[in-house]
Amino acid sequence: MICLPAPAKLNLFLYITGRRDDGYHNLQTLFQFVDFGDELGFETADELTLSPELPGVAPESNLIIKAARLLQAHTGSHKGAHITLTKRLPMGGGLGGGSSDAATTLVGLNRLWQLGLGNDELASLGLQLGADVPVFVHGRAAFAEGVGDIFTDAVPPEPWYLVLNPGVEVSTPAVFTDPELPRNSPVMSLEQRLNSPWQNDCEALVKKRHPEVAKLLSWLLEYAPSRMTGTGACVFGTFDSRKAAENALENAPAGTVGFVAKGCNQSPLLTAIKAL
Ligand SMILES: C[C@](O)(CO)[C@H](O)COP(=O)(O)OP(=O)(O)OC[C@H]1O[C@@H](n2ccc(N)nc2=O)[C@H](O)[C@@H]1O
Ligand SMILES: Nc1ncnc2c1ncn2[C@@H]1O[C@H](COP(=O)(O)OP(=O)(O)OP(=O)(O)O)[C@@H](O)[C@H]1O
């Protein structure tokens, strides 16, 4: 049995620099991981099974099963596995939970089935499952360009974050097809980006469409510099200490769901796989 984490990611900034002919968008975004996320277990078995199932997601649509099938098809392997999932990350929260589960599955089954694929090969397989899968396979904080698949390693500060979930599911395709989404941020070098104010080009639009996001973000901004991650809905505040972040969480409006976690430039997945 192999147990591996599937951490959340934050987009510390996210700029949309254009739209390609295939409808996908060119981005400039800074990915960092946090030490909080889902957990997956992998055991050798005859069939391919996942438990528990996710409510509302048929097993064959689950990115974990999709990743496993893709790996079988790519390598011609007929091995099976029983995969267990401890789901902690909200779905559709902009934390990349599904993509992270897929990446951990590719990395975990590559090990369990002793396939010997390299990380670059696993990352390009992962891109077929979602734009965020490669960075989770890569496992290092990165400045991403293109559709989010061209990486330059980056070493941003590793503060404590308070991540809050406004409780609404924001559809990534809906954000990217919205006529009001700004798509014309200038392309800058990593250094220019790091030294300019950090923003998320999706934030104003998502706040407009989902007042719950606007409300929670303006509450959080009273405590710390804060932004939305990905296409939402989760928002994060940046703190100097765990205590300060926990203190803000304790004062959050009744019913607010969130967690405190530390930024990690090396993903907990990479740390765990190195230790196996
Ligand atoms: C915006 C980010 O959250 C940044 O981390 C991600 O790039 C989104 O990654 P994701 O949720 O894995 O997205 P995917 O499942 O690959 O794509 C969902 C949809 O978002 C749109 N999409 C996604 C990524 C991208 N660079 N341009 C896009 O236009 C496409 O309409 C696509 O059909
Ligand atoms: N293992 C999985 N975990 C979560 N969602 C999954 C999984 N498999 C399939 N999905 C589907 O993917 C959708 C998006 O989930 P996910 O948690 O990756 O969103 P997200 O955090 O907004 O991602 P991103 O930041 O990449 O936009 C879910 O609504 C669900 O239908």
From TrEMBL:
GO terms for molecular function: 4-(cytidine 5'-diphospho)-2-C-methyl-D-erythritol kinase activity. The keyword Cytoplasm does not apply. Residues 62-139 form the GHMP kinase N-terminal domain. ATP binds at residues 90-100. Pfam families: GHMP_kinases_C, GHMP_kinases_N. Its EC number is 2.7.1.148. Keywords: ATP-binding, Isoprene biosynthesis, Kinase, Nucleotide-binding, Transferase. The active site is at 9, 132. Residues 190-252 form the GHMP kinase C-terminal domain. It is an enzyme of class 2 (transferase). It catalyses: 4-CDP-2-C-methyl-D-erythritol + ATP = 4-CDP-2-C-methyl-D-erythritol 2-phosphate + ADP + H(+). Pathway: Isoprenoid biosynthesis; isopentenyl diphosphate biosynthesis via DXP pathway; isopentenyl diphosphate from 1-deoxy-D-xylulose 5-phosphate: step 3/6. Belongs to the GHMP kinase family. IspE subfamily. Catalyzes the phosphorylation of the position 2 hydroxy group of 4-diphosphocytidyl-2C-methyl-D-erythritol. NCBIfam families: ispE (TIGR00154). This is 4-diphosphocytidyl-2-C-methyl-D-erythritol kinase. It comes from Oceanimonas smirnovii. The gene is ispE.
